[in-house]
Amino acid sequence: MSIRVKIISISVAILFVSMAMNLFVTTNYFSKEYTSARKDEVFVLANSLKSQLDRLLRMHIPLVELVGFEDMCQDAVSQHSILSYAMVLDLNGKILFHNDPSKHQKMVTDAHVLEILSGTEKITAESMLDGQYYYDVFIPVRDSLDKVIAFIRMGFPRSHIDEKTQQMALYSVTISSVSFMFGCIVLITFLSYWVSGPLIKLTQAIENIRKNWTPGDRKSVEISSRDEIGQLGKAFNQLISDLRVTTVTRDFVDNILQNMLNSLIIIDEKHKIVTVNPETLTLLGYNEDELMGKSIFDLLDPASNPITTTQFPGGSKGPIKAVETNYLSKKGAHVPILFSISPLEKKNERGETGFICVAQDMTEIKVLRGI
Question: How much is the pTM?
Answer without folding.
Answer: 0.52
